[in-house]
Amino acid sequence: MILDAEIKAQLAQYLQLMEGDVLLKVSAGSDDVSRDMLALVDELASLSPNIKIEHAQLPRTPSFSVNRIGEDTGVTFAGIPLGHEFTSLVLALLQVSGRAPKVDQKLMDQIKSMKGEYHFESYISLSCHNCPDVVQALNVMSILNPGITHTMIDGATFKEEVESKEIMAVPTVFLNGEPFGSGRMTLEEILAKMGNAPDASELSDKDPFDVLIVGGGPAGASAAIYAARKGLRTGIVAERFGGQVMDTLGIENFISVKYTEGPKLVASLEEHVKEYGIDVMNSQRAKRMEKKDLIEVQLENGAVLKSKTVILSTGARWRNIGVPGEAEFKNKGVAYCPHCDGPLFEGKHVAVIGGGNSGVEAAIDLAGIAKHVTVLEFMPELKADAVLQERLYSLPNVTVLKNVQTKEITGTDKVDGISYMDRGTGEEHHIELQGVFVQIGLVPNTDWICETVECTRFGEIIVDKHGATNIPGVFAAGDCTDSAYKQIIISMGSGATAALGAFDYLIRNG
Ligand SMILES: Cc1cc2nc3c(=O)[nH]c(=O)nc-3n(C[C@H](O)[C@H](O)[C@H](O)COP(=O)(O)OP(=O)(O)OC[C@H]3O[C@@H](n4cnc5c(N)ncnc54)[C@H](O)[C@@H]3O)c2cc1C
């Protein structure tokens, strides 16, 4: 039995929502993964009379495709979609059976009207929490448009393919055999990358907002809900709705919820925001702001949005180490997300740069997958919590190097080592390894705005107790500000403060 009793019971309930028959075409061999895949599809068929199975020869073995009766949809799973991809499998079954995907009608129409042949392949790992979004978006596209196909490929099952394509980060997507993109991508982002983004004039033609929020993380979402509940005309422009929470696995300190996961929390935020008719302009990046009669925010696609007040909530991103080799080998051995990319380094030697909580957590995580992990810390002592350090030092395959400065990440077409200097002796050393995880904290996403609003020397926007910046009508919230601590609940609180500050400002200034 490949599914445990509890999951089977849940699955049986979901499968009752199927609206028609689905044909699984299964390509199996005599290997262990094929045996487990056959067990999985047999269990699925035993749970719903709507699921039929046919044996077939598909381009990859083991794999299976999910089809309507008499019509291939192009949705294929190569490997076994368990782990984080289990939801992708369930959604594919429901959507192929006829259940409408939970996607804006506008986007669905856009996908249906696309002309041409698009064959997507996404390489994933089953422990990657960024991958299901991409897999599910590509599956939806494949289900809605007969010219689009998508195969999800589990890197652990198709190791040779992953090695030959030199894939060192997941998800990595190929379109018609050519690299298309890597990392988390929403459906809108994929469509925008294919040249289907809303054009600038469509955005510039919008009426002015009362409150325009730049950034769609917890701070922006909270600000939007507070503003809309005051009856204000509210818009959010965000490069990626959800922000850092999309990259977060387990969350245990979102008070009143004992445990949740990033993407789940983002889905709730989105649902809550949509409840109030807030205009969410996703996959759009702001590049300039200017105060005239109204405040104007210019986007990278050239559109200009106007608003009486603006709340900046652009959050933060991973800090780069800035040594030679980092940029060259990004996704070729240099990685930032251990949960996502760790499995690609199974049995290999890796380094983690940074000995704070995130670095040490990453090293502990990676030690369970990689052959050996070297932690490089600049300071004479690790900065991580004592409990994490204790766990780290108990692991047999971890070496901790303190008081060292990373000098270079070396390689030819991919990472083959790291050079560092012992800060005590000044001696330089080189270690041969295949992966480097950079875990040295975050920087605020304010490069574009600190010439306009007042920031600290660290690039954090300076706000007062109302969330106001030095420019009247411009407020800021969350990780992009000089708030002492950066957490989800703190960002949400400051988003609420900024929205109430903006409301007060509008009352006084019309
Ligand atoms: C791996 C990880 C794990 C974490 N775990 C936890 C945890 O367990 N508990 C906890 O409380 N906190 C955790 N945090 C911290 C928490 O995620 C942040 O404090 C919180 O997300 C900050 O919210 P924010 O809205 O200020 O910014 P962000 O979440 O960074 O959101 C910023 C938003 O602004 C957008 N944006 C940026 N620049 C632009 C631009 N120029 N134009 C338009 N949009 C733009 C982004 O796309 C995004 O939508 C974690 C962070 C990370 C990275």
From TrEMBL:
UniProt protein name: Alkyl hydroperoxide reductase subunit F
Keywords associated with the record: Disulfide bond, FAD, Flavoprotein, NAD, NADP, Oxidoreductase, Redox-active center
Disulfide feature: C337-C340
Annotated residues for binding of FAD: 210-225, 469-479
Biological process (GO), any one: response to reactive oxygen species
PROSITE patterns the UniProt entry points to: GLUTAREDOXIN_2, PYRIDINE_REDOX_2
Domain of life (superkingdom): Bacteria
An MF annotation (GO) of this entry: NAD binding
Pfam families from the UniProt entry: Pyr_redox_2, Thioredoxin_3
InterPro entries for this protein: AhpF_NTD_C (IPR044141), AhpF_NTD_N (IPR044142), Alkyl_hydroperoxide_Rdtase_suF (IPR012081), FAD/NAD-bd_sf (IPR036188), FAD/NAD-binding_dom (IPR023753), Ferredoxin-NADP_redctase_2 (IPR050097), Pyr_nucl-diS_OxRdtase_2_AS (IPR008255), Thioredoxin-like_fold (IPR012336)
Residues where NAD(+) binds: 349-363
Family stated for the protein in its record: Belongs to the class-II pyridine nucleotide-disulfide oxidoreductase family.
NCBIfam families, sorted: AhpF
Domain FAD/NAD(P)-binding stretches: 209-494
Comment on bound cofactor: Binds 1 FAD per subunit.
Swiss-Prot/TrEMBL cofactor(s): FAD
Record domain Thioredoxin-like fold: where: 125-193
Organism annotation: Lihuaxuella thermophila
Subunit composition and interactions: Homodimer.
Any one GO cellular component localisation term in the record: protein-containing complex
SUPFAM superfamilies: FAD/NAD(P)-binding domain, Thioredoxin-like
